[in-house]
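Sequence in, structure out. Go.
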Amino acid sequence: MNGKKIMTTLGILLLTGLGYFKGMGFYSQSKTPDIGLDLKGNLTLCGEKPNCVSSLNTDESHKINPIDSSLEIGQLVDSIKDFGIELQTLTDNYAHFTAKSTIMGFVDDIEILKVGNIVHVKSISRVGHSDLGANRKRIDAIRLHLTNNSAK
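Output:
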């Protein structure tokens, strides 16, 4: 077999194996991580796993800067939905979204909390230990998108 056929075969086996584990419940999507607001009205903090970022965490592995935006909550939601992210919950100052990965359909939860012109953010994977930086990249892309929309 040439190298291209070997890589294709390995890729198919990997996807089949992951599909098997997902189908057997090893990667259950039903468990929602700690999301929502805590008793003080803040976003809940990330846990120990490196599959989450939050502007309210203080440790370097989870910390991400909040977003500075004068957009109203409805405008923020509309801009974030531009990413194909599905809105789940919306209140006067809080929104919860879900996003699915392209290949395996793994679900991530994204939250925003608007306090004045500060938008606190959190993005967390429902499954797995590491997200390979996907949640941080997502929030950075949202930040850039919101910054560009605020400037208009």
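Check: The two ends are 55 Å apart (CA to CA). The chain is about 30% helix and 20% strand.
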